[in-house]
Amino acid sequence: MSKKAAARVAELRQALEDANYRYYILDDPNLADIEYDRMLRELADLEAAHPELRDPNSPTVRVGAAPSGKFATVAHDVPMLSLGNAFEDDEVREFVARIEKETGDGAPMFSVEPKLDGLAISLRYEQGAFVRGATRGDGSSGEDVSANLRTIRSIPLRLRGKAPAVLEVRGEVIMPNADFERWNEAARARGEKPMANPRNGAAGSLRQLDPRITAQRPLAFYAYALGQVEGASLPPTHSQTLAWLRELGFPVSAEVGVAQGVDGLLDYYRRIGERRDALPYDIDGVVYKLDRYDQQRAMGFVSRAPRWALAHKFPAQEEATTVESVEVNVGRTGAVTPWVLMTPVHVGGVTVTRATLHNADQVARLDVRVGDTVIVRRAGDVIPEVVRVVEEKRPLDRRGKPLHPPFQLPDKCPDCGSAVEREEGEVVARCTGGLFCPAQRKQSLFHFGSRRAMDIEGLGERFIEALVDLGYVHTVADLYRLTVDDFIAMKQRADEMAGTVPETVKAGKIATRWAENLVAAIEVSKASSLERVLYALGIRDVGESTAKTLARHFGALDPLMAADEEALKQVPDVGPVVARRIAHFFEQPHNREVIAALRAAGVHWKEGPPRRATEGPLSGQTVVLTGGLASMSRDEAGARLEALGAKVSGSVSKKTSFVVAGEAAGSKLAKARELGLDIWDEPRLLAYLAELER
Ligand code: 5U1
Description:
Blueprint: H1 2-25, H2 33-49, E1 73-75, E2 85-86, H3 89-103, E3 109-116, E4 119-126, E5 129-135, E6 141-143, H4 146-149, E7 166-174, H5 177-189, H6 198-206, H7 211-216, E8 220-230, H8 238-248, E9 257-260, H9 261-275, E10 283-290, H10 293-299, E11 301-302, E12 305-306, E13 309-313, E14 318-330, E15 335-347, E16 350-356, H11 360-366, E17 373-377, E18 385-389, E19 420-421, E20 429-431, H12 441-449, H13 461-469, H14 484-498, H15 503-506, H16 513-524, E21 527-529, H17 530-536, H18 544-554, H19 557-562, H20 565-569, H21 576-587, H22 589-600, E22 604-606, E23 622-626, H23 634-643, E24 647-649, E25 658-661, H24 667-674, E26 678-680, H25 682-693
Parallel strand pairs: 2-13, 21-22, 23-24, 23-25, 25-26
Antiparallel strand pairs: 1-6, 3-9, 3-10, 4-5, 4-7, 7-8, 10-13, 11-12, 14-15, 14-17, 15-16, 15-20, 17-18, 19-20
Helix pairs in contact: 1-2, 3-9, 12-13, 14-16, 17-18
The structure holds ligand 5U1.
């Protein structure tokens, strides 16, 4: 049995290593994620059942070993070097001139590489197997972070092909920008502290004492140099070594190349600089290395830095500046985002004056105040952000107290004056003036006219942009005042501004049919239904189904607008959060004005008595419908149960009287079972309705 298990273990390890190589090195995956996970699970199960088959370099170690306490110190037999820096082209000219003079080579070849902004590490392999990995430390000795490095999937645990007896590979551990952004977005959404920048993210992740935490972090590795090598003859140049490292299974940046002469180096610097924002990782410059090893030896070292290599740095992506004011911006969805206006600062190659603070939690965490010196970061195409406050530089009054108070998010929208609300458990604060707020105008118009709302055919995003930008429409009610002439004038102005005036128009032929159709569609939309209008108002979390329930429950708009949270909570399926949102929406005077204007413009709908079946055989009972029914829609079943007095709810709890479970019922059914509730199938429901509705 064990022999068979051993064979299967070997087979799985090989297949998983191959899949890693295909994915991380060749960028040509051969396994679907689900298949990879399945094989990894099978391997983990086999290793658990056969402890004698365990291996520190099995692909299963990628999930992280148990914590070890502290990192041991590792001496680097071949020191990890540092690089001389250049910021000006002239320094590069001097570097090349020196090399040309001392090597006697008039046009030496250089390896040119991006300088990744991460954490330098050294990986040691013996007989092709990973044995240890350490940080750079002071260059002579660093910390043993092997268990953490094993979790980084792009680091090979076993080398491919013919491996030397000893091989040390040096390179950079980084956190790719996209992963860093994703990580921070999720952290902010959870109200947790985001990472300051990808470099800190990589360094912090690698220095975790619990490798299982490191395993959760999206880290990557790129190789760029060798340390100790035994049992292999090296190629004659560094660029060939990089190609060999790639064959052995190490990721090497796709941007590496060779260049000759000062112009070749500076050209590479500029080309990479132009693409800096588009690269998948942060770089802080490029590195030039004399390519031929014999020439490198001839140049030698000064202290710890080779005279054959140079780092040519880019402008920093983080800079310090001072905060002139803290402001807020209201987005299309009403989200209120705090930001700072700063003394202009050159960062990442451009001058910036504004940086985001993301949300109220981040404001509280950073405690940014007027006059503060802050570190701003600009990388890629993401908005510049404030990373931290330099607290020592905070302006103080004579008594040593901060000169300015902490910033508070406003409780009124700066654009429309409506209340700004932040719900429990939410990071984002929002303006509640959805219908009136200028910041939310385009969004609310687009939703209002959409097919399932007021269904205004032809009112697309482009027209809405132009109508709002050119001042034709301020609220949804203004749509009903627009004439054919307005639309034609609006389109002409928009075309002129965009430089897209059609030839026919230039020739004096103006098409009017589309505008007539649009005005007609707006006219037709006036005759609507209460549920459509409620949905069209764009109250947060009031979708079509809730709009329908509200319409049925209240029968008319006025009693709904007058209902307080308590009354709204009585509506089937309306919980406390949605009740609060509806009540707050109708409390905003501006929203009420827009509704009055809609009515004045002629928008109308049928109203009727409230349909609340308070008394009936199911009075006092709460029913949950889940899964699909064959004989009717869930809405219809709900309505029939409500007509018998039941309250129909969307969530299962101890208070649920019974659950009707149709086809493919999922988590609600599971929860009902867990709570031991009465569960009805469709035949039982039908029999019950037939009995009582007679
Ligand atoms: N791309 C690259 N980065 N980097 C950093 N190459 C490179 N080489 C280095 C360092 C510190 O040192 C070599 C001179 C070994």
